[in-house]
Structure of Roadblock/LAMTOR2 domain-containing protein:
Amino acid sequence: MVWGAFSFSGTMELQEVQGSQTATGIPIRSTLDQSMTVQYAEQLQNLVALARSVIRDTDPQNDVITLGVCSKSDEIIVATGEWVLAVLQHPFLSA
Amino acid sequence: MVWGAFSFSGTMELQEVQGSQTATGIPIRSTLDQSMTVQYAEQLQNLVALARSVIRDTDPQNDVITLGVCSKSDEIIVATGEWVLAVLQHPFLSA
């Protein structure tokens, strides 16, 4: 069950979660409430930035494509590029 | 092709990369050279710690199980628990 999805840092029109962006790092659309969205957006940006530094320390031309975190109850998947898409789901619950 | 694997923060005997640990956070065995191992161990510990804080901000009882980073050329998979196991591979190259 996908319980939250949002996109930030992007200009791409999303197919299922459509929106446009006015400022870098501002979530453009989310199914989470506003405070949760802002919280996750900020934290996941930091996480992607740290992952990028890990990758680039050994190859400065390299970059993060996806980042995933599985916890005991949830799964967070982040895809990066010109835009960033994050999906948060409970993989152990049915749709 | 797995090009590097190491474990740290642990006491578990690994099946393929056996070793024992003398201090928390010290890599116990690695197929990478020493400097790369120390570099990745430190960086991945920071990455896991940040991912844990993201997870626990919404649920303090929750914890990270696995963390994965796909880059343009490599893939890093980190499994956490009492011990931490990290595998670094080139998924686009054959074994």
The two ends of chain A are 4 Å apart (CA to CA). The longest strand of chain A covers residues 64-71. Chain A touches chain B at residues 36, 39-40, 43-44, 46-47, 50-51, 53-55, 57-59, 62-74, 76 (CB under 8 Å).
